[in-house]
Amino acid sequence: NNLSGLVPGSGQFSYFNYTSFLGNPELCGPYLGPCKDGVAKGTHETHVKGGLSASMKLLLVIGLLVFSILFAVAAIIKARSLKKASDARAWKLTAFQRLDFTCDDVLDCLKEDNIIGKGGAGIVYKGSMPSGDHVAVKRLPAMSRGSSHDHGFNAEIQTLGRIRHRHIVRLLGFCSNHETNLLVYEYMPNGSLGEVLHGKKGGHLHWDTRYKIAVEAAKGLCYLHHDCSPLIVHRDVKSNNILLNSDFEAHVADFGLAKFLQDSGTSECMSAIAGSYGYIAPEYAYTLKVDEKSDVYSFGVVLLELVCGRKPVGEFGDGVDIVQWVRKMTDSNKEGVLKVLDPRLPSVPLHEVMHVFYVAMLCVEEQAVERPTMREVVQILTELPKPPNSESPTSPAPCTTLDPPPTTITRDQQQPPAPKSTPPDLLSI
């Protein structure tokens, strides 16, 4: 066979003798001739090389696997870094005053645990800035690409951001990208008038505080209607949009936002149309238009909430709101007014309650032309009737006056003198 190489002397080869390998002169081993040095060495190296070849293959596979994993991890890290950088470039902060925070600080507030309010107008978060100051971040509903970032939106938001009044919530700035707007407001620790009035703490809101809130909110709306440039119609006046600071000072909030929601096509609540249920002026049903007299009607509903302590709808039966209920209950007499008075008020100056009630009924007149302006509302509210033998009331404060109204509580029961333009349903009061 002309075989060649070293024949092992162990295993099955130990049973063979030299005759078994005849005809193979190149074989060598224990039963054959001695091997040449080159043959033995070459055979040994061949076995060694075969073993090394298998080890090298295993190491190569492991190396490729480790490299692939490291490459994948590096690619993921780089992709996340690029996405974060892209997001940072996409968000833009527009400030309306000197701010000590960035868009990243605002975005950090958008956590489920920080939510303090939800509604069709958006989600509100409480945020803590690096300086320790608190802000309220309103996330507006998502809008279609381009609609929320056109020149008109930015121009009007900047108009709102320039408004400065003691009784209007300050818009500090807003963050925006191609899909979302985040409005950053000053934070009001005591929440909204609606929450305080209709929540568990409603009984602690005494009459002097309610009257003070009524006057302050009226001054804020008066500024928007008469002294702001350009003039602004709120479009969604309600107790939940009157916020209270740590001293229970009233601040009008969310002015002008209803128009943006309407333009975006949002229809989750009536705020996207012309206000909220129970606050909408009756003429909207056939005009589909909103003006300053619509705000006056809504403010009248808020005044009735302060007097009666009841929500605008939901407590009077199907299809009946607080305005209809009050008209039915009062029946144009003082005893009727006492029947609708908030029972949680332990004692009140009747002449003040009657006066605020009278202003409320002026504001909710069926015909818009018969309602007063907000400037007139401020004037009438601040002209409180005085008990007998007291000094004449001081001159009314304009809506731009920032001093709070007098809040002295008296138990005098004298009714206020009837103004010249007494509404029909209050002729006998």
CATH superfamily of the largest domain: Transferase(Phosphotransferase) domain 1
- Which overall shape is indicated by the principal axes computed on the Cα atoms? rod-shaped
Proper CATH architecture of the largest domain: Orthogonal Bundle
Mean pLDDT: 78
Unreliable sequence segments: 260-272, 392-396, 400-429
The count of DSSP E runs of length 2 or more, i.e. the number of strands, is: 10
Domain Protein kinase: 110-384
Keywords: ATP-binding, Differentiation, Glycoprotein, Kinase, Leucine-rich repeat, Membrane, Nucleotide-binding, Repeat, Serine/threonine-protein kinase, Signal, Transferase, Transmembrane, Transmembrane helix
Protein name: non-specific serine/threonine protein kinase
GO molecular function: ATP binding; protein serine/threonine kinase activity; receptor serine/threonine kinase binding
Structure description:
The protein has 429 residues and is of the alpha+beta class. The chain has 2 domains: 92-186, 2-Layer Sandwich (Phosphorylase Kinase, domain 1); 193-426, Transferase(Phosphotransferase) domain 1 (Transferase(Phosphotransferase), domain 1, Orthogonal Bundle). The protein has 12 helices and 10 strands. The protein has a 6-stranded antiparallel beta sheet with strand order 3-7-8-6-5-4. Strands 1-2 form a two-stranded parallel ribbon. Strands 9-10 form a two-stranded antiparallel sheet. A hairpin with a 4-residue loop joins strand 7 and strand 8 (181-186).
